[in-house]
TrEMBL record:
GO CC terms: cytoplasm; nucleus
eRF1/Pelota-like N-terminal domain sequence ranges: 61-190
Name by which UniProt lists this protein: Protein pelota homolog
SUPFAM superfamilies linked to this entry: Dom34/Pelota N-terminal domain-like, L30e-like, Translational machinery components
Any single biological process term in GO: nuclear-transcribed mRNA catabolic process, no-go decay
Extent of the signal sequence: 1-27
Cofactor(s) annotated in UniProt: a divalent metal cation
Keyword field: Cytoplasm, Metal-binding, Nucleus, Signal
Length: 438
């Protein structure tokens, strides 16, 4: 543990990862007394001895300041800590909102002799949002709109594109903070919502590494090798090529899998490829003394899938040993809800429906027990359409049902999107829904 421990009311100790600060309570009389653990937004009391403990904090959106009323106007100042946070911000920011942040802009200046010169200056602008773009690969939000903040360099009404990056504070102002916006804000700053997994999807000659976050599934590496047949004279070439392939996957694993961030690492494949690579990984880790792998080998689990392609990520999330690792997360609950829907659709199709029209009719009849909907539907540029879906979610909850909002950038959200992005489990059968055009 980094930092200095001296008993006293002003003691502060920073954890080894620099995420948490332990603050000894004023009433402390010895090192075992209660201390306050301040981590991000959470402040709680615990009898953990910081010198003997590691931080298991989840990195979540940092909410610096809130100033709004429910279903009324207001603002929030926040800092995105990871790509999932940027995705939440993307879903929070709507056309007509305003965003204020520090930015850079090239401005023209007069120089002696009557000429003009351009200079890139740092300044604070607030734009009224006209367009929002999320760049997953660059981990940046681009927000285009007209400047509404008085500034010497930029006129009011001039167009500007703000780039919101990780660790860069920004202020979001909304005319109405509806229930969906408040739920999104809550999820963004909730450590329990985290479900970070590293997944190595494999089959002979193909290896892919994915990071599955709270809301975003991103591809980090793809390794392809042509593997010769393992029969006859080619057997020697097969073994050497397979070993080289495993070595390339191992290098990608070391580069992209951070056990201080992910809950577990999953190696998945058809057949025995996963078992062979797992053996190679552990043997090489011991030989090279790769401490992160050696110390976390119990958090590396194996899963059978039908292929090494991206669509098999759904099989990984459904695996019991993976579900057990993420069972307390929002993602696990969504995966279970989606599985329950597909099971019901197969076994009792009159108690499951999908498509906006069918779900709307089922709700009018008070039949919706569980609503599944993707966040893509809320990003509709038509305010009435967005409000319709917000009201639907609220109404389902008010009538005693559950509502799950799936990220369209997550594996489960991608599956739901193939079913129009909205589906429902019903309290009672509605066989006549099939007669209604979708």
């Amino acid at each position: 543990m980094d930092g200095v421990w001296r008993l006293g009311k002003s003691t502060r100790v920073v954890c080894g990862w620099g995420l948490c600060r332990w603050v000894v309570c004023e009433a402390a009389t010895n090192e075992r007394d209660f201390v306050e653990i301040e981590c991000g937004l959470s402040l709680r009391t615990s009898n953990i001895d910081p010198r003997r403990s590691r931080c298991n904090s989840e990195i979540t959106m940092k909410i610096v300041r809130r100033d709004f009323v429910r279903n009324g106007p207001g603002s929030v100042k926040m800092v995105a800590e990871d790509s999932d946070d940027l995705w939440y911000a993307y879903n929070l920011i709507a056309v007509g909102d305003s965003v204020m942040a520090v930015t850079f802009r090239k401005v023209q200046r007069e120089v002696p002799g009557g000429g003009r010169d351009s200079e890139r200056v740092r300044l604070k602008l607030e734009v009224q949002v006209e367009e929002v773009d999320y760049d997953k690969d660059a981990a940046v939000l681009r927000i285009r709109g007209k400047n509404i903040l008085e500034n010497d360099q930029v006129k009011i009404g001039a167009f500007h594109t703000l780039e919101i990056e990780l660790k860069r504070p920004f202020v979001l102002r909304k005319g109405i903070w509806d229930s969906l916006a408040l739920d999104t804000l809550k999820q963004a700053s909730d450590p329990a919502a985290s479900a970070d997994l590293a997944v190595v999807l494999m089959q002979e000659g193909l290896g892919q590494i994915f990071l599955v976050g709270r809301s975003v599934t991103s591809s980090r590496a793809r390794i392809e090798t042509s593997i010769p047949r393992k029969h006859g004279p080619a057997i020697a070439g097969y073994e050497s090529t397979l070993k080289k392939f495993f070595e390339n996957v191992l290098q990608a694993f070391v580069k992209h899998v951070d056990f201080s961030v992910v809950r577990c690492a999953v190696i998945a494949s058809p057949g025995f490829t996963k078992d062979q690579f797992h053996r190679h990984l552990l043997l090489e880790a011991e030989r090279r003394q790769l401490r992160p792998i050696i110390e976390n080998k119990s958090r590396i689990i194996l899963v059978h899938t039908n292929s090494g392609y991206r669509h098999s990520l759904g099989e990984v999330l459904n695996a019991p040993n993976v579900m057990n690792m993420i069972k307390d997360t929002k993602a696990a609950k969504e995966v279970k809800a989606l599985n329950d829907f597909f099971t019901m659709l197969s076994n009792d199709p009159a108690r499951a429906c999908y498509g906006p029209k069918h779900v709307e009719v089922a709700h009018e009849r008070m039949a919706v027990q569980t609503l599944l909907i993707t966040d893509e539907l809320f990003r509709n540029s038509d305010v009435k359409t967005r409000k319709k879906y917000v009201d639907l979610v609220e109404s389902v909850k008010d009538s005693g049902g559950e509502a799950f909002i799936f990220s369209s950038m997550h594996v489960s959200g991608e599956q739901l999107a193939q079913l129009t992005g909205i589906a429902a489990l019903l309290r009672f059968p509605l066989p006549d829904l099939e007669d209604i055009e979708m």
